[in-house]
Amino acid sequence: MELYEVFSRRRSIRKYKPDTVPREIIDKILEYAMWAPSGRNWQPWEFLVVTGAKKEALAACYGRIAELAMPPAGQRTPEQERYLQWARTFGGAPLAIVALTPVYGDPAIRKMNLESVSAAFCYLLLAATAEGLGTCWMTGPLRNESEVRQVLGIPEDREIVAITPIGYPDEEPAAPPRKGVQEKIKWI
Ligand SMILES: Cc1cc2nc3c(=O)[nH]c(=O)nc-3n(C[C@H](O)[C@H](O)[C@H](O)COP(=O)(O)O)c2cc1C
Fold first, then answer.
1. Lower CB count within 10 Å: N or C terminus of the chain?
2. How far is the CA of 175 from the centre of ligand 1 (A)?
């Protein structure tokens, strides 16, 4: 896939086929994530590849926190039910990737590291798109961070930066509209 096409074809996918993704492909997209720039070239990222029962438990953490923000069962709109189903199962994706970084007290260093890991995460998402895989960058599950940490055994000296399910898409969502580039740019 041509590079610019990858940029525009990447979509947040919330429904996946159950098919497993070959390990070589996961290794490949993680290798491409390593090419991201990083402050001081610290490459301060670590990735957990979460599969099987751990992935189910991770998704359940999102499901529980998403449910708290919704009306009780029986009073939800079909759209709310769909969102809850997505949250509870990560859309049926066979695996998820969680990006971590070491905790730093200095706010400038923390910012630098969060930016570096976000760059790598973006590379990962684009590499996955090039491989025909779907992803969805998620911070929603972090509203239930203590449970996520417990389920994945993440120590206190690591900060969770981002989470994405990964799998073969079982939907082709339209691209949500983008704001006009001119409203976002100021030449000075
Ligand atoms: C930092 C960040 C956090 C996000 N968190 C969530 C989330 O918790 N749940 C979700 O369903 N989508 C989440 N998204 C996906 C956005 O909703 C999506 O990127 C946006 O609507 C644009 O759609 P597109 O990715 O298909 O272009 C997140 C995206 C980013 C970059």
1. C
2. 12
The CATH number of the domain where 93 resides is what?
Answer: 3.40.109.10
Q: Would you give the distance in Å from CA 80 to the centre of its chain?
A: 21
The confidence band for 58, taking pLDDT boundaries of 50, 70 and 90, is very high
Q: Is 54 exposed, middle or buried (0-12, 13-18, 19+ CB in 10 A)?
A: middle
Hey, whose CA ends up nearest to atom 8 of ligand 1? 140
Full-model pTM: 0.96
Q: Considering the domain boundaries, does residue 17 fall inside one?
A: yes
Segment 50-64 mean pLDDT: 98
C-alpha 3: how far from chain center: 21
Residue 9: give the domain boundaries.
Answer: 3-167
Per-residue pLDDT for 83 more than 90? yes
Q: Which token pair is 80?
A: 């709310």
Indicate whether 35 belongs to any domain.
yes
Overall average pLDDT of the 7-22 stretch: 97
How far does the centroid of ligand 1 lie from the alpha carbon of residue 45, in Å?
20
What mean pLDDT, rounded, does the chain reach?
97
The residues facing 135 across adjacent strands are 12, 166
Q: How many domains does the chain have?
A: 1
